Amino acid sequence: MELYTDEYFMNEALKEAQKAFHSDEVPVGAVVVANNQIIARSHNYTERLNDVTAHAEMQAITSAANYIGGKYLNECTLYVTLEPCLMCAGALQWSHITKIVYGAKDEKKGYSLINQQVLHPKTIVKKGILEDQCSILLKDFFALKRKPKT
Q: Residue 43 CA to chain centroid, in angstroms?
């Protein structure tokens, strides 16, 4: 049995999403992996930083680039709990990331709704890893947000 599977790393991304949930951020988490080692981890910081660009993927890209000491993330995989938006997909395209693995599909703002070709042509995409767990966390978060305050 292989220890470092897509499910293993998606679980690590889910841990980041849980941190976002508990910080009242939209619960999206991300990790960047190189050679079966997590080199960056992050979650949404848009509320805390008051910055619409502070998505989990953007934070993880920056952290991974700092770790590597260069702007290109070839030979790296991003695991993210929600399909990247167009902004994040553009940044991932510029990073030349090798592979993107995401959990839940973003039916409203996912990059694939607008343009499937926004990613680098060599980037491999795998979707639906731990999709139920990723989706449930998001649904629970938004259900709490919509719940009337008493």
A: 8
Sheet containing 77-82: give its strands across: 37-43, 29-34, 77-82, 99-104, 124-127
**75 given a catalytic annotation:** no
For 5-132, strand residue ranges (E) read 29-34, 37-43, 77-82, 99-104, 124-127
Non-local CB neighbours of 149 within 8 Å, separated by 6+ positions: none
Structure tokens given for 150: 């008493």
Q: How far is CA 76 from its chain centroid? A: 13
Q: H helices of 23-147, where?
A: 46-49, 56-68, 86-95, 111-114, 131-146
Considering the candidates 12, 57, 75, 83, report the single residue annotated as catalytic: 57
Half-sphere exposure of 137 (CA within 13 A, CB side): 26
**pLDDT tens digit string along 69-116?**
999 999 999 999 999 999 999 999 999 999 999 999 998 888 877 766
Tokens standing for 148?
């009337």
